Amino acid sequence: VALAQLGWLEFETGQQGNSASLVADARAKLLRAVRLDPGDYAARLYLGTLVLQRDADATGAVAQYRQFLADSPPASLLAQAGPEIRSAFQQAGIPVPASVAGT
Length: 103
Known about the structure:
This protein is mainly α and about 100 residues long.
């Protein structure tokens, strides 16, 4: 969990500061967090967002977001992440899951 949180903080900082090396470090941490705990919904959410925003890869983001949704995240986090998740599904041309459609 701590590794995923650190990866997310590095990603946000790297995005704001336009630091490719910090974003690369963030990606490495998030990938490692997913490997260590594949059921960590936060790591999946963060990695999906990185893939969508940094790589412009909606299909790759959808793969991570599907795992996020399968891991039963709290309703408050789902509501917060809903717009980004809907955007990824729409960009990928994939129907938005019902659990996200109304958030």
